[in-house]
Amino acid sequence: MVSLIPSYTYDLNQLWQLITRRNRWLIRLRYGAVAMIIAFIVAFYVFPQISISTHQRTLIYFISFSIIFYNIVLSFLVTTKFVKNEINKFNPIHVAVIQMLLDLVALLAVVYYTGTLESPFYIFFIFHMIIGSMLLAGHVIYSICAAVVFTFFGFVALEFYGVIPHYAINGFTLAGLYRNPMYVIISCAAFAIMMGFSVFLANSITSALYRREQELSLAYAKLNEAEIMKQKYIMGIVHEIKTPIVAVQSHIDLVLGKYTGPISEQAEDKLKRARKRCEEATEIINDILNISKLKLLNTINKSYTDITKIIQNIISQRNANATAKNITIEMIDKREIKKDYFIDAALMELALSNLIGNSVKYTNPGGKVEIIIYENNDIEIRDNGIGIPEEDIDKIFNDFYRASNVKEKVFEGTGLGLSLVKQIIEQHGGTIDVHSPSALQDSNGKGTSFIIHIN
Hints:
60% of the residues lie in helices and 7% in strands. It has helices at 12-46, 54-77, 92-112, 124-135, 138-160, 181-256, 265-296, 307-324, 345-361, 404-408, 417-427; strands spanning 303-305, 328-333, 341-343, 368-373, 379-383, 431-435, 449-453. α2 (54-77) packs antiparallel against α3 (92-112) and α9 packs antiparallel against α11.
């Protein structure tokens, strides 16, 4: 069985998408071709010096309506599940071949009833060969080209010897050209050469572009595989680093809990600072692990979720840190109609947790953090904390970037948290905006507001 798929195809999904797009483009183009044929017939009424018989006109109308009919069928076919993106099933390439064959039969009929070698339409065989080169593998389009050339030669020969009737366009060409041996030989030779050259040129260019696309697809797959290996390596190393830090933190807790005996105030103060550093180190490690996990995910699992439950869960998790700094965290739901969000709950919780955690972290004692859910389903997380300098706002979503005032105040972090948030929101088809100062700005005119837009 002849394979319709180019031998150098690597990414079949890319091939199916490419052929499907071109199939639909050809279906739209076919309506224009029918309009051109109708316009050709109407021209006979405008220019009475050229004419065709009523029989010819009827047959050309019939061919035109046949083209419209099978075009409608093809248009319906490409939108159904009957066409499968599988090699061993009826796939888009089969649709492309059917289109080509139907068009060539219809064109051959139009050419025959308008004079064959004298017809102004036979040059459109070349146009079809160029289109076919964009759709089909080289050996397939070359075979079709050869079949068209020999079929056309057959009709010319049968007319030349009077085996079949000749239909002419009266007044368009000199009478009897189809019986002129020199004209027939030269025209047929030119037709064959142009057909072969057009297929060769179009197929060479198309094949080169397609090969490059496949090579790029392969290179992208290898890069993606390398990225996955890198992220897995990072996760493994970082997880190993996290283990001793957590162990150190546990031992510090034992000492601070005075399970090993009484300790001096000076030692207790140093241990509390050490424990805080352990917490910061653990937070940094968690950021790296989360960003690595996100990059490993190819898809997200969406379901209808009550966003208020996610936010309340995050508030309860962050409440201890907020209470320690005398910070108030409040959720405000301004929606009249409470609708569930179509989201990946785990990922969205991770994004919101980062934003709320940052608000608590960068808000001074006695401050306030608000999470507002708007009627249009936007979510705003705002605070009256240290704010973000204007020159840093456009950069804060970049990997490893940290605002200048954060570094000045010696807040620890990786600069990955907001990058992670942005990636999660974009995976949901949404966007995130940042404003500083916020509506909760303090007496110094500071504060930060993050607004999440989810469609």
